[in-house]
Amino acid sequence: MNLKKYFVRALHRLQKGPGYTYKELLVWYCDNTNTHGPKRIIKEGPKKKFIWFFLTLLFASLVFWQWGILINTYLSYSVTSSLSIGFKTMKFPAVTVCNANPFKYSEVKHLLKELDRLIEAALERILQPVPGNSSETISPPLDLELWHQIPLVLIDEHDKDNPVILDIFESNQTAGGNETAGGNQTSAGNQISAGNQTAAPPVPANATSEEKKYKLAVKLCSHQGSDNCTYRNFTSAAQAVTEWYILQSTSILSKVPLQERIRMGYQAEDMILACLYGAEPCNYKNFTQIYHPDHGNCYIFNWGMDEEALNSSNPGAEFGLKLILDISQQDYIPYLSSAAGARLMLHQQKSFPFLKDQGIYAMAGTETSIGVLVDELERMGYPYSDCTVNGSDVPVKNLYRQYNTSYSIQACLRSCFQNDMIEICGCGHYMFPLPEGVNYCNNDDNPGWAYCYSSLRSSIRHRQICIDSCKETCNDTQYKMTISMADWPSEASEDWIFHILSYERDMSTNVTLDRNGIIKLNIYFQEYNYRTISESAATTIVWLLSSLGGQFGFWMGGSVLCLIEFGEIIIDSLWITIINVISWCKGLKQKRAQARYPDAPPTVSELVEAHTNLGFQLEDTGALPRDEALPPEPGTPPPNYDSLRVQPLASLGPDSDAE
């Protein structure tokens, strides 16, 4: 009821307002607004009125155009980066050190024995020694079943239009023809031939480099004996052998339990010979051990998992971390690790070290000094950037959370790839963590895993999906390193240094260490100046309002009050529209009522007469035919009131006397 009264009063107030038509309302607005231009339209002559109307329309269009640009700029949520330099006591970074070789060869030799015999025999056939000088003496037969799971093949490119695939260990040639290959890597399912393969033909010892047009490739099939294969070509046989050995060893080691793999790796007490942080001595017990699939056992100093992170009191090498490592290069796996040294990485506390992407090598027989500078990155969150604080809003399941580490985009990308591989290939890759209930891929249980892995790794679509799903962290700390090296120990001091280190580790007076396995590291802050690169909003709501007001005031001399006036006329126009709609509805209702009763309604006297005189009824003369129409009813005519009026005698005629 109160709402109805409100609308009734509002309609009454509107009827007392500026006018009842749109034209009257517009004239009233132009005459009373504070905006420049509209007043001149109604007060000037015809010519000036047209000029002012054109100018007002032009400048109003410019205002709306500028407003659109400003609002679009604000909604783009652009940022500006600012660089500031500060000085404070900083936390020393977490330092992860690993051996470039993941396992001791003496510990895994029994697992890789057949694989090593295969690759040695394959290399002999690839190098094709001169007949009579072959090293193929009486030896146990090769296990070709392991070979046929992921074989190495030679590609004969003497005929570039029709290259021939040659199996290294296949000696029989049948009438089926040779298998052909096309391109560096064929797509899945596009293998050209299904014939038998032949062995590499002998090449004369005096053949030129132009005549030896062979490439080594890894053949990957969806399952053993399938024609759905792809070839990974390499420009060098060394690359092909390393890639093939990694795939085969991955399949073998994936079946070994984690604790056994940790035991076969380098232990902290054997690898970390000396440790000094600032003026405080430390040892291998101050390091946290984790297993890294690429490098085996890795050890992290100042990870901050169990204890508070250490602070650095001063810059300079004397206040940093000093390590002496033994990498035992003589126990490297010959075909798995072609680089010798220590792999190390500086990173934030409680973050997982991705050494393959962000690590650096330290060479054996050298003293490597690493000066550190700190960059702190502060990104703005949504809507200015698509960054995340802790990864909780990322749709990818973080498989590295089992290490209790913080979110990083590297962890997200690898988790996304592992999840895709589990979904598509049915097993997980050995180099990434596994969710519960899933096993690592191997040749026995998953014969086509290498083909599936290679296809997935080269798929741009899956890679782009992972990139779009993962987000950068909003706050990050990066460590910029300045690296310098020198030979260590020097020739003059190597004798006594090796004697002391050998005695401390092995309790032996004999020298058990040499220059090929010793590394010295110095890690320190170069200076306490740290840089902070922070983002701030390039456009704010204050900037938007001031810019909108500036454009409106410049082009039309308006203000916020002018906008309120414009809002007022819009409201009045709406009310007038409502009144017109109500009037139109009422008129439509009346027209419908008239269509239902086409004759004119009876008068009041007729209604009263019909009610008092029962014999008086209105009849529709048009209801009966013209032949059957009733005669008029007799009745007494109404009196002639003029005959009762008294008239003078002179006006009476002779007829009056006769009467």
UniProtKB/TrEMBL annotation:
<keyword id="KW-0894">Sodium channel</keyword>
<protein>
    <recommendedName>
        <fullName>Epithelial sodium channel subunit beta</fullName>
    </recommendedName>
</protein>
<keyword id="KW-1015">Disulfide bond</keyword>
<keyword id="KW-0915">Sodium</keyword>
<feature type="region of interest" description="Disordered">
    <location>
        <begin position="175"/>
        <end position="207"/>
    </location>
</feature>
<feature type="region of interest" description="Disordered">
    <location>
        <begin position="623"/>
        <end position="659"/>
    </location>
</feature>
<keyword id="KW-0968">Cytoplasmic vesicle</keyword>
<dbReference type="InterPro" id="IPR001873">
    <property type="entry name" value="ENaC"/>
</dbReference>
<feature type="compositionally biased region" description="Pro residues">
    <location>
        <begin position="631"/>
        <end position="640"/>
    </location>
</feature>
<keyword id="KW-1003">Cell membrane</keyword>
<dbReference type="GO" id="GO:0015280">
    <property type="term" value="F:ligand-gated sodium channel activity"/>
</dbReference>
<keyword id="KW-0739">Sodium transport</keyword>
<keyword id="KW-0407">Ion channel</keyword>
<dbReference type="Pfam" id="PF00858">
    <property type="entry name" value="ASC"/>
</dbReference>
<dbReference type="InterPro" id="IPR020903">
    <property type="entry name" value="ENaC_CS"/>
</dbReference>
<keyword id="KW-0406">Ion transport</keyword>
<keyword id="KW-0472">Membrane</keyword>
<feature type="compositionally biased region" description="Polar residues">
    <location>
        <begin position="175"/>
        <end position="199"/>
    </location>
</feature>
<comment type="similarity">
    <text>Belongs to the amiloride-sensitive sodium channel (TC 1.A.6) family. SCNN1B subfamily.</text>
</comment>
<feature type="transmembrane region" description="Helical">
    <location>
        <begin position="50"/>
        <end position="75"/>
    </location>
</feature>
<dbReference type="GO" id="GO:0016324">
    <property type="term" value="C:apical plasma membrane"/>
</dbReference>
<dbReference type="GO" id="GO:0034706">
    <property type="term" value="C:sodium channel complex"/>
</dbReference>
<dbReference type="InterPro" id="IPR004724">
    <property type="entry name" value="ENaC_chordates"/>
</dbReference>
<keyword id="KW-1133">Transmembrane helix</keyword>
<keyword id="KW-0812">Transmembrane</keyword>
<dbReference type="GO" id="GO:0030659">
    <property type="term" value="C:cytoplasmic vesicle membrane"/>
</dbReference>
<keyword id="KW-0813">Transport</keyword>
